[in-house]
Design a protein that fits this description.
single chain, 15 helices, Glycerol-3-phosphate (1)-acyltransferase, 379 residues, alpha/beta, 53% helix
Length: 379
């Protein structure tokens, strides 16, 4: 077993830290009202009624929580995610888990579209299939206060520190890499990380080789062969696709701003607002495709990243919104049968009040997964 005390500041809560966090949440006066507002936004009467119901339902469950595993099973996957699924999704599906082993730990590397739902839904799929849940790497920019810190760490959040000087950032990267590998090899626990820093804003899912380089850094010093490190990581590429992205317009505006000014600086609490929007608003169909573990002898981070990309691009579940956006941009009817039941006018009306550049960027965000899949399949 790994010594978690050396990683207490970045690891999920354990032991007394779990109990202390639960007590803080119980003492937080607006916890249940806020949760009801997140889950039932837009319906004042229903929100008030559900808030009352949650005040009866949640506290007894919190009393049973002794670990972050308990919190995820009882609260997150037991109450919150099923409610989000009912209220904002047409269907939530997943595939590929039958090719993985229940008693084996994996490093899940996925594309990144939603701040919290990507990994939360991955865990929900694991739970429903009867597999162990995973921990998740999250940036410290999301830990805006004690409440959000408690919620993330009670959901298996591993803190990725980003606000450090360059030298300290390098040393922290080494420590984070050791944590990931020790978690997999010593504790036999899985962990999720995004294929690159930050969400995809343009629908182009490309793995950063620097993520793989970071994993290898502390073991390179020990002269461990690169291909051996990759094998013990048990890397599984994961593709998550949303029929509708609740943050598509905001992401598009960010891309337009970067196009005009070169960089984009987030406002305070912007991530929190985007996170809430992603939880509340309609997503349509959502699918998670689990790939196959990387077992070949890879010689470089670039080779590993290329294989992760190949699996994500080929396994990505394309929706009518993707096919229509592709045809609309290309001016063809190549995939017309894929969206024959879709109200294309209604879809386009979502963006009718936006300027042309912003509309085009958003539509390309939906179309890009089609381009990537066609390229990966050589079509």
């Amino acid at each position: 077993m790994m010594d978690k005390s050396a990683y207490r500041d970045i690891a999920p809560y354990e032991g007394q830290d779990v109990i202390d966090a639960i007590n803080r949440i119980k003492a937080y006066p607006k916890f249940l009202d806020n949760m009801a507002e997140v889950l039932y936004s837009g319906n004042i009467i229903k929100t008030a009624w559900k808030s009352h119901r949650m005040k009866e339902q949640i506290p007894p469950l919190l009393d049973k929580v002794k670990s972050y595993d308990d919190f995820q099973h009882l609260i997150t996957a037991g109450v919150f995610l099923p409610t989000i699924e009912r209220n904002s999704m047409t269907a939530f599906t997943y595939s590929g888990l039958e090719h993985l082993e229940k008693d084996k730990a994996y490093l899940y590397i996925s594309n990144h579209r939603d701040i919290v739902l990507d990994c939360a839904l991955l865990d929900l799929a694991l739970i429903r299939y009867g597999y162990p849940i995973c921990e998740m790497a999250i940036g410290d920019n999301l830990l805006v206060n004690q409440f959000t810190t408690d919620m993330f760490k009670l959901n298996g959040g591993v803190t990725v520190k980003r606000k450090l000087p360059i030298r300290e950032l390098y040393l922290e990267s080494l420590r984070l890499s050791r944590y990931f590998i020790e978690l997999i090899t010593n504790d036999n626990k899985s962990i999720w990380i995004a294929q690159r820093s930050g969400r995809s804003k343009d629908g182009i899912d490309v793995t950063s080789p620097s993520i793989i380089k970071m994993l290898y850094l502390p073991f390179k010093e020990k002269a461990m062969p690169f291909n051996e490190l990759i094998k013990i990581c048990n890397i599984v590429p994961v593709a998550i696709s949303y029929q509708y992205d609740p943050n598509d317009i905001n992401k598009g505006r960010e891309e337009v701003y970067k196009k005009l000014h070169g960089t984009y600086s987030k406002k305070k609490y912007e991530d929190l607002v985007n996170m809430l929007r992603g939880l509340r608003r309609f997503k349509g169909n959502v699918h998670i495709s689990f790939g196959t573990p990387l077992t070949e002898d890879y010689s470089s981070p670039e080779e590993v990243a290329k294989e992760i990309d190949r699996q994500i691009h080929t396994d990505y579940r394309l929706w009518d919104t993707n096919y229509f956006a592709y045809d609309h941009i290309e001016g063809t009817a190549r995939f017309a049968e894929k969206y024959e039941d879709m109200s294309t006018k209604k879809f386009l009306s979502r963006y009718k009040d936006l300027n042309q550049d912003l509309r085009e960027i958003i539509l390309r965000t939906y179309a890009n997964p089609v381009y990537m899949q066609l390229k990966a399949l050589g079509q």
